[in-house]
Amino acid sequence: MTTTITVEGMTCGHCEQTVEEAIQGVSGVTDVTVDRAGEQASVDGGADSTALVEAVEDAGYTAHV
Question: Transmembrane segments in this chain: where (predicted)?
Answer without folding.
Answer: none
